[in-house]
Amino acid sequence: MATRSRFFRPLLYTAAVAAAGGGVLYISYRPRNIPGSEPALVPPPKYGEEGHLDPPRFPLVKNREEQIADLKRSAGVISALEKAKGVLGSLTGPGVVDQRIPEAEPYDLLVIGGGATGSGIALDAATRGLKVAMVERDDFSSGTSSKSTKLVHGGVRYLEKAVWELDYNQYKLVKEALRERKYFLDTAPHLSSWLPIMIPIQKWWQAPYFWAGTKFYDFLAGSEGIESSYFLTKSRAMDAFPMLRKDNLFGALVYYDGAHNDSRMNVSLAMTAALYGTTVVNHLEITGLEKDAAGKLIGARAKDLVQERDGKSPQEFSIRAKGVINATGPFTDAIRKMDDQSVKEIVAPSSGVHVILPGFYSPSKMGLIDPSTSDGRVIFFLPWQGNTIAGTTDAPTNITQNPIAGEEEINWILSEIRGYLAPDINVRRGDVLAAWSGIRPLVKDPKSKNTESLVRNHLITVSDSGLLTCAGGKWTTYRQMAEETVDEALKLYDIKASSVLEVPHISGTERMDDSAPLDGTCQTHQVRLIGAHGFSKTLFINLIQHFGIESIVAKHLCESYGDRAWTVAALSSPTEQRYPVRGVKISALYPFIDGEVRYAVRHEYAQTAVDVLARRTRLAFLNAQAALEALPTVIDLMADELKWDRKRKDREWKDTVQFLASMGLAKSKLSVTRKDVESGKAGEYDEHERKLYSRHDAPADTMESDSKFSSGEKPVLKTDSSVNK
Q1: Which of 17, 35, 15, 264 has its CA nearest to residue 145?
Q2: Are 455 and 170 in contact (CB under 8 A)?
Q3: How open is the CA angle 238-244-246, to the nearest 5 degrees?
Q4: Is the Cβ–Cβ distance between 581 and 548 less than 8 Å?
Q5: What gap in Å lies between CA 547 and CA 53, rounded to an integer?
Q6: In angstroms, rounded to a whole number, what is the distance separating the alpha carbons of residues 718 and 725?
Q7: Which of the listed residues 91, 538, 579, 590 has the most CB atoms within 10 Å of its CB?
């Protein structure tokens, strides 16, 4: 018996080790479904007998005036728009702008805030059969939601803290975020993608440490994982990321996370909610909350800020709802104090600065993370929209509408970048194309002394009057936050979810758009966003063949609008050239075209030039100077669409230039006029500004062939220069 035991025990140990190793290998290298690699959910457009393609036709959302009219109807008011259409005409007299109607039609939920959280809540509630309104003081994604690091991630740094500090809350946050990351990439494959991120290793002992960490990250992701992490030797790391500093480089670990276009994602959430029946209005300010005799909330008062921009005096009106949800990010406490002045603040605002550098600073398909900066923070260095994004800082701040990135923060980021890039790469202040500061609405922990240790988790609270507040969180978990908030609202306000019987044909076809059974339960993990249904990796080829647009423009349109790229391309102007046939660029440096401006106004509620330059396109985030130079074109296109007069166009110029100051535009450019831009003077720098803002050295005054001139003489190469005679 003892002999048999000695014989079988090694076999059992060997089998156990082999099974464990096989399990690890399977988890690491099992086949994955890469988001966006599948064919389009709906059939592509068909070609007719003569080879002509019939582009798809998509459902439209209500225009902004109709949406505001719906808001007024909730309080029993008929608007001038409805009167003009003959709605309840017998109840309106001559000269009456707004008038009461017999029956008010209150909403189930009024969501204040049109960022990622608010838009996510609106979509979740609408797909549960609720009557929902969402209003935003500025624009969708105008605040924190457009100023992220552009990652869809679980948070490797949070996982490290969870392990070393035995922090279960951090662990839960990572686990939840990894699950949500998969939903994120599935529901918006055109706006998000997987991205390999490199961790440089400088000491041999760091290799097993980071390997264990990234493999644990893979393990937690489970079936929600994208790709498995892997190790690179020094030579292979340099091949993958040639800009790296070779000194003391031992190798690198590469793990996978998601990347996305944050404000385009936010706008898509809002537009999808609108297609599912949500009343969606931006540039509408909540001026007060309304309560009944018992002190319970019954709605809010609002005014249209677009009318103010047009030089009119907007009248306040009421919006009635059974429940009011506060999802205003950094401005959470302002709405809470509107409800109760004595309430204690729950948000600890933290400033996160990012800078945009030219694309040559990083590979186009590989990011980098520096896990040990000089002060212990983490910096990401990622390719984004053809450029490179670097950040972020993390420091307490005050809440302002458009915070400005300070020179100290910008220089700190550049200094850290110099530490891991090759010494022959001159990291210059002049290479910063844009810089911005975003305010993270972190949930305050009274025991914490600095914001770095705050958990990026969310908090749901309810006031005595019934104001439901959702605060904190991060982009990756917006959907989970929305689900929990709507669950709480159903219980708090005693409203019932129901099946959505009339599912909108978002894809433009008669077939069922999603596999989500909209039966009154949360299905947003399956509800694809606008643009996702007809998207595929080869869609851009159809656009090139049908419209004759540039390849880079076609890819950009598909990755920004999904199947709605058909509509954007159709709205673009002919170039009057042999090629490209369509698509007049608003900036020579980037693939944004005039059709995007028209689409933004007609289909995405863009009301200001900043809406277009910052959130519908991303030009202001990619290059502040290029955005300034594109501003005349954008204003003219929007003026044609929205019938702006001269005063409104002048205001748009002034307000947009001031906004670009918060995106890193040089101070000397804040006083430029439209004439300066159109004449090219806006691109001129003096010697001091050139060192700070110019991407290149001053041009040489002479050529080598000018040696005939005496020493010290520098003829300028102008038309009347003797060099040209």
Answers
A1: 264
A2: yes
A3: 75
A4: yes
A5: 10
A6: 11
A7: 590
